[in-house]
Amino acid sequence: MSLLAVGTLAYDDVYTPYGEVKMIEAGSCTYIAMAATHFVEPVQLVSVIGGDFNDDFLADLERRGADLEGVEVIPDGKSFYWAGRYHDDMMGRDTLDTQLNVLADFAPKLPASYRKTDYIMLGNLTPAVQSSVLDQLEGQPKLIALDTMNFWMDHALEDLKAVLRRIDVLIVNDEEARQLSGELSLLKAAAKIVEMGPKILIIKKGEHGALLFSEDNLFSAPALLLPTVVDPTGAGDTFAGGLMGYLAATDDLSFENLKRAVIYGSAMASFVVEDFGTRRMQTLDREQIDHRVQRFADLMHVAL
Amino acid sequence: MSLLAVGTLAYDDVYTPYGEVKMIEAGSCTYIAMAATHFVEPVQLVSVIGGDFNDDFLADLERRGADLEGVEVIPDGKSFYWAGRYHDDMMGRDTLDTQLNVLADFAPKLPASYRKTDYIMLGNLTPAVQSSVLDQLEGQPKLIALDTMNFWMDHALEDLKAVLRRIDVLIVNDEEARQLSGELSLLKAAAKIVEMGPKILIIKKGEHGALLFSEDNLFSAPALLLPTVVDPTGAGDTFAGGLMGYLAATDDLSFENLKRAVIYGSAMASFVVEDFGTRRMQTLDREQIDHRVQRFADLMHVAL
């Protein structure tokens, strides 16, 4: 199986209590690809970059199993740029700068070889752009997952609702689930969101783990306790990349396998925050991943 | 086995978005006893009340398996009173009134029949009062658990540290664990707290479940998702009562059984918040409890 991933290839400046990095390769598509290629290839990227994007980084992504045919290059443009500073408690962050650059006019065009892909991960983008990707697919994919954020609930709710009707899995955090549904109880929120379209809902709760809702089934995944979180940037995208990479690799949509996919996604997110940017993803091997997944299983095992 | 429980027998006024109750029987000792008597008897109560406390309520507690010999009655005094209003999101609350009344001079005296009890639950009280209970024990109990709060960390830290050196299990919430240890990471916080005395640490995270630390073992228990939380008052005490009641009943301090006890405590807490005060505890039977414990197990079950 292959996975199609839509999102940003970007440059970030990140300041945390543990240090700072400038102009590192980042963006949702980068994190998704870095995580998903540990499980499946090809991961077909759909994104846009300027002439400034690092060729060596792209070549490395390709070696890892990314297909770059869907990455549009605007030679005289600049890549999307974001700068942010995390608070001392690492719970919140302030955006210092955002420059859309080539992302401002991003109109994804799917190469012919991408159009029959069965697993689709729509990273957080303008909902209308997410829809435009679905418009170009031929046939019905096995699973379409979408990430979004409260900004689109505030500014493009109708477009967001339109794309929600076309997807299978929504991945949001608890605050976003509450805003989208207008419900405080996550149980009630899930019921309302499922009525909006996605039959599977995954609610990320950061240091408190993740919840998986599918029909009448519910699963609560813990978070690993980490001594230090160096850089939380991209944790959500890495979770989504690990989850969808695992699902595409195993091609099994049973609830039991969805649960495993949530744990694999959680494990990948627990790695990525250990260092800045995607650094930790680059040195990771499958044995380390499986070992960490086992730690998740041990953490929540109880025999009644 | 029997369980000794120290804490308050009180009257509460509680206002939540779902309604209000006035002058209902409450307090840490009440919640602990109401939960623990579902598992073990006798639950030996150590507390103080005024002549105003409801005799019928006490008689009901006794029928459930509470031993009231250690409850001091000050006939012309008034029982401890607390009034609070929960915020619309139920996450926070404001204290409207606190009247210590007979609690101001509470100096617990253990009846002779209590002094060799093996399981001890010290509810949240002045740390020096908690210590004075331990002073009266004869021999070494099998397990001493203690609940405390940030108020004592601010105002009686040395007394708190003194009693922590004498106990086995500390039960606090995540905010309290961070304050007590000065560590943001709960993993680092746990390591520091264990150095203070308690070899077992339980961190309550409310709607996010609970963490159990014991030596190098770690367990993450989920919270049940509830459609509605009517009244969160006493959830922590009920958790502690269920946990310690289960441990006293099973008399097994293996890590596997500690994990089960955390789940039983969590189940009891998930019931108590469904109605005001201890109402839900009063109608509960063991079949309902075991059924809910199974729901917790299902919620976190994954097969790799």
UniProtKB/TrEMBL annotation, chains A, B:
Carbohydrate kinase PfkB domain: which residues?
32-280
Sorted alphabetically, the Gene Ontology cellular component annotations on this record are: cytosol
Write one Gene Ontology MF term.
Answer: kinase activity
Signal peptide positions are: none
Please name the InterPro entries in this protein's record. Carboh/pur_kinase_PfkB_CS (IPR002173), PfkB_dom (IPR011611), Ribokinase-like (IPR029056)
UniProtKB keywords:
Kinase, Transferase
What PANTHER family has UniProt attached to this entry?
RIBOKINASE, SUGAR KINASE
Q: Per its record, how is this protein called by name?
A: Sugar kinase
